[in-house]
């Protein structure tokens, strides 16, 4: 019985990086690198032609940067899921690309360690952020919340890292809109996470979520 491979397209203006990532990804049996782009102007058409599931996209691309490429994918409601792979760690850029629909964000310095895990997660319609990026996002609300436990990113056997963030913010009385703005995701995505959390924890209301957050030291009483 054959399984469909995850089809991956790489877009970066450095051939050396593309070659390195290709060699790494080809070691994964269910991955297939179906193409690459060295120029931002060709990325959308290249992905459309090779029907990639995942696009790994750099922001610094010649002629058309990664932001504009992402806008093109967003404008055309592309089904290809995008992971940003960039040297930039500025919160403004992270926020912009997530609002445009990017499902993951990695810094190039950790690409070799995280790219395989990121592709697998994003293909399963999850979000994925490298540790440095997650720290940037975390710091946007940490200073204004004295009840927030700084160990928010402790490994949780039931919830994913993103779900831990969501339940923590819910417990701190953030609204769905406020959560979406702080985590740079849509309100629909917040609601989907909330429903999944309640299903996993077998609770029917917010009180149950708060109790879980307190019990697991996600927030301080």
Automatic annotation (TrEMBL):
Taxonomy, superkingdom: Bacteria
Domain HTH luxR-type as annotated: residue spans: 152-217
Residues recorded as bearing 4-aspartylphosphate in the entry: 58
UniProt domain Response regulatory: residue ranges: 7-123
Alphabetically ordered keywords of this record: DNA-binding, Phosphoprotein, Transcription, Transcription regulation
A GO molecular-function descriptor: DNA binding
Name of the molecule in the record: DNA-binding response regulator
Annotated organism of origin: Flavobacterium frigidimaris
